[in-house]
Amino acid sequence: MSRERRSDWADYPPERIPTKTAVPELDRFLAESGTSGRVLDLGCGDGRISRMLSERGYRVVGCDINAAAIETAQADAGPELLVRDIAFEGGLDLPGPPFRLVVCQLVISVVGAKREREALLRNAHAALEPGGLLYLSASAVSADINPGYRELYEADLPRTGERHTYFSRDADGNILYETHHFEVSELRTLLEVAGFEVVSVDRKAETSSRRPDEAAYFLYAVARRPAGGPKEHG
Asked: What SS3 string covers the chain?
């Protein structure tokens, strides 16, 4: 497929970037894990979650490909926000020591094709200190609770070339970006291939991010960079 996925997000109007305003699963993870120290927010968008983490006492660095969103968010004091292509195969070139925690909130589903998803996870792995944790949320295959998604998967398959991938569109039918919904086993495999030890992957029935009156599944994963290897940061 020839569509330029990077430009979809690099040029997206910051005020329209879809973001869940409530993140109870992340709140629960933070409370139960007791994680402290440096946190990397990959795909931070308008910096909403980065600011929340900073207000809770974490030392936060946020990264996003959308320069306008980063510029808008930097008006607020708090986390350090950087313009980075989080799915760049050459790494992220981040300042400072490795991170104790990487947060990736509903980004891996929209970052691009499998190649970009793999690069995103490799970058997350490289940014972590040994023993550090990745908290990741993703959209899940929802055909069985929402026939509309089944129709989208089937309609866009000839163009996307990938099952459970479709185009998110505006009210006029214009393509905004590409979205992939994961099976649990698929996400586990991607994490393991990137070098993570999978701690858990939970599936929750909620409402769609862009269609709040419709049902959808989401996945919440926690994975660990194994301890004992040499530290990487890139």
From this structure: CCCCHHHHHHCCCHHHCCCCCCCHHHHHHHHHHCCCCEEEEECCCCCHHHHHHHHCCCEEEEEECCHHHHHHHCCCCCCEEEECCCCCCCCCCCCCCCEEEEEEECCCCCCCCHHHHHHHHHHHHHHEEEEEEEEEEEEECCCCCCHHHHHHHHHHHHHHCCCCEEEEECCCCCEEEEEECECHHHHHHHHHHCCCEEEEEEEEEEECCCCCCCEEEEEEEEEECCCCCCCCCC
Q: Is position 195 within any domain?
A: yes
* C-alpha to C-alpha distance for 211 and 167, rounded to whole angstroms: 14
17 is a domain residue: no
What CATH number is given to the structural domain containing 58? 3.40.50.150
* Spans in the chain with pLDDT lower than 50: 1-3, 230-234
Structurally, how many domains does the chain consist of?
1
Q: Which amino acid is at 172?
A: D
Pair 102, 39: CB distance under 8 Å: yes
Domain, as residue range, for 96: 5-12+25-222
Residue identified by tokens 């509309």 is: 148
What pLDDT, in 10s, does the model give residues 157-190?
Answer: 999 999 999 998 888 988 888 999 999 999 999 9
